[in-house]
Amino acid sequence: MADRVDLKTMGRTDLESFVETLDEPSYRGRQLYNWIYARGETDFAEMTSLSKSLRSRLGEVAQVSSITVKRMQQSDDGTSKALFTLPSRREAETVLIPSFDALGTAQRLTVCVSSQVGCAMGCSFCATGLMGFQENLSPGAIYDQVWVMNQEAQERYGRAVSNVVFMGMGEPLLNYDAVLQSVALLTDEDTLNMSPRRITISTVGLARRIRDLADDDPRTNLAVSLHAPTDEQRSAIMPVNQSEKTSLDALEAAIRYYADTTGRPITYEYCLFEGVNDAVEDAKNLAEITRWAPSKVNILMYNPVPSLPFERTTTEQLNRFVQALVEEGVTVTVRQSRGQDIDAACGQLANA
Fold first, then answer.
1. CA triplet 231, 270, 295: central angle to 5 degrees?
2. Cβ contact 262:293 at 8 Å
3. Angstrom distance (rounded) from CA 341 to CA 38
4. Which of 60, 103, 241, 334 is close enough to 234 for a disulfide, judged by CB 3.0 to 4.6 Å?
5. What is d(CA 146, CA 136) in angstroms, rounded to the nearest whole number?
6. Distance of CA 73 to the CA centre of its chain
7. Architecture of the structural domain at 5-63
8. Domain-by-domain residue ranges, the chain?
9. Does 180 belong to an annotated binding site?
10. Does residue 55 have a pLDDT over 90?
11. In sequence order, what DSSP letters do the residues of 112-168 get, joined into one string?
12. Which residues are catalytic?
């Protein structure tokens, strides 16, 4: 099986080209695409709209890889976390996060997907960073996470997934091509038909790739994991900031370019750590960053990770921090932490 071509790494155009190498018309590639991504089929024998001879040939030269659910956990707050086994035998985690209205009805169902196994960024507060980088996920493996969690959403809440955020394991912009290809799969009207406006790509702030994202413009949202408002503070907890290519100066230039090119606002993710980045002065410095381009700030309360020397800031200090931002005219929200009891909250994903 190792030398067979994995069709789950291909989109529609690639599949059309692939079947042509088998002396088949291109429309067979479109049929394959429908079977693989719209129906979730992995067995060529079941793809009955294909000729028997093509199905037999595909069985000889190709395969359709898939991820399998090793474990599905449920949080008391309704959050689901899946541990997936990849074709490589490595594992990645994905989270389904419901948001409920006053009557307890799920109004928003967000899938937090992983783009890598582990992460090379080494942020000192993150459990995933402790794993180091292990593997880039294929476009199909990213897509499959949403496919499986969409089934979970349908079964548990009777409705489809509404949003996707690339905020799971890994740095999405270090797996740039696969992430953009997965967005194309997710938004295709023949598959899950998601709106790109309901997909958010998050990054630690890789300036060059933010510019690429502006130029390629998949029409998704952009979130930047900032977490500190000065180079000195940021470099202390996020090693990526130590490079002149990814410093706050480089990030500022990239953010301005992105906003000017796409016309879309930026979301800054800012996790509060007690005594590290939660002072009122930090809030004022953060407010200056928000003026680079139209933006808003999402405040996250830290989810403790055993063995890491960070603590969650107090509610009183959180309130002071938010008030300082509001006084500076910043649009700010405080994200509710979800799935802590199953280690599904932000920064806790580590194949546990």
1. 95
2. no
3. 34
4. 241
5. 17
6. 19
7. Orthogonal Bundle (1.10)
8. 5-63, 68-342
9. no
10. yes
11. E--SEEE-SS--TT-TGGGG-EEEEPPHHHHHHHHHHHHHHHHHHHSS---EEEE-S
12. 93, 346
Residue 345 CB partners (closer than 8 Å, separation 6+): 303, 337, 338, 339
In the block, which residue shows the tokens 């693989």?
A: 36
- 251 appears as a binding residue in the annotation: no
∠ at Cα 313 (311, 319), nearest 5°? Answer: 170
Round to the nearest angstrom and report the end-to-end CA distance of the chain. Answer: 29
DSSP 233-270: HHHHH-GGGGSTTTSHHHHHHHHHHHHHHH---EEEEE
| Percentage of the chain exceeding pLDDT 70 | 95
Specify the amino acid at residue 72: M
The residue count of the chain comes to 352
When the pLDDT of each residue in the chain is averaged and rounded to a whole number, the result is: 93
Q: Is 331 exposed, middle or buried (0-12, 13-18, 19+ CB in 10 A)?
A: middle
Amino acid at 273: F
Examine domains 5-63 and 68-342 and report if their fold is the same.
no
Q: What is the pTM of this model?
A: 0.92
Q: What is the rounded distance in angstroms from the CA atom of residue 171 to the CA atom of residue 116? A: 7
Q: Does the annotation list 126 as a binding residue?
A: yes
